[in-house]
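Cross-check.
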Amino acid sequence: MRFGLFGTGPWAHIAHAPALAAHADVEFVGVWGRDQAKAAELAGKYDIRAYEDDSELLADVDAVAIALPPHVQGPLALRAAEAGKHLVLDKPVALTAEDAEAIAAAVEERDLASVVFFTRRFTPETEGFLAEAVAAGGWTEARVDHLGSIFTDDNPFGASPWRRERGGLWDVGPHALALVLPVLGPVTEVAGMAGERDLTHLVLRHEGGAISRLTLSVDAPPAAAREEALFAGEAGLAVPPRAQWRPEVALGRALDQLITAAGGGARPDCDVRFGASVTAILAAADRAVRERTTVRIGG
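Predicted model, tokenized:
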């Protein structure tokens, strides 16, 4: 499958480019970025072409991998889907539910394959835990604390303007949702409250009646940073294992799933339709926090 990479930031260097270059079933064609110097630098590392025109790269490939901020990714992903290209997207898919839905609809109308890179969902440990949790059933609640401290000199993601503007809700919120949704099901109501810095607390009601509580931040005091999760219900208490993963290996598994789906095989669990449902929840949570109200989703 001929792939083009869109984006030249840290995640493109750490995850996308190495995974594309290493995959046996991928021809890594070229890269495009908003900064041509950075695109040329990245292309030089892999002996591929740095494209000056994003439309030209789109025309030369079967699939795209996008490592760009969500407000840039959304329109580009829609163009790619409308051009009949398979999609490897980052989270969140877009910054509005409407934009994410448009991408999902374009993918479905053209019978394209898609995958959204919710990183830990592509580790055997996490997938095994989720399969066991779904099989057990009877869960009544969940709690996820996902707090980071990225605005430090040694963290490359701290230089990202969209993360500073949107905070933990939009950056690590997708990871928390990708963990609870397969187990507790779709979300029907969202309430939330924001604290100092970007600290966000959410309470979600799921379709079957279960409640989940999410605490999210990318600007927590370093001593308060943590990743913890707990499910509770008829089966007792369950704690997801701490997954050992490398970004390029996890993305390689995502590429496996995309290529399988494109060949008529199983659709990835984390496809763009799932990504659109996550974006809808994030948008509802954003509104719930701003307006100090409970927001219903669907129905």
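The chain has two domains: 2-120+248-271, 136-240. The chain is about 45% helix and 25% strand. Passed to J.P. for a second look.
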